[in-house]
Amino acid sequence: MIEVTERVAVAAPSDTTWAALTDWTRQGEWMLGTRVRITEGDGHGVGSGLSAFTGVLGLGFTDTMRITTWEAPKRVEVLHTGGVVRGTGLFQVQPRGGDASTFVWHERLELPLGRAGELGWRVVGPGFRLGVRYSLRRFARFAETYR
Length: 147
Description:
Elements: E1 2-10, H1 14-21, E2 34-40, E3 49-56, E4 59-71, E5 75-81, E6 86-95, E7 101-110, H2 114-144
Antiparallel strand pairs: 1-7, 2-3, 3-4, 4-5, 5-6, 6-7
C-alpha cells in the first residue's frame, strides 16, 4: 500500500473550488494526460461511476472508480475498481476564509505485481508525485477562473 497526499492553495471560495473539482468531464483541462467520463449516475452522489483514461497517444490505462462518500461541498471519496489502480481516493476542499480554499488530494493505493510493483513504485513514484503537484497547480488556476 502506498499513500500520496498533496495539497494546493486556491484563490477561490470553497464552493467554487468544489464545483470545479467535481466537474469530472473537465478534469482533463487540469489533470496531466487524463480524460474522465461519468459511467453511471450523475457523478454527484454515492454510487456514481467514473472512468479516467491516463496516457499519451492512446497508450496508458483506464482507472475506474465508484463514488463512496459525497459530502458536498467538502469531500468526495472514491473506490478505485480497475485492474491497474486499486485502493481509495479522497478529494477534499477546505475553506480558508473569504475567497480562499485548499484542495487536498489523498490516494491510498494497492500496488500491482507484488514485489515487482514495489520496486517499480520506487522508480515511478517520484514522477507520479511531481505530476500530481503540477496538475494541482493547474487545478488552482482552473478553479480560480471556473465558470
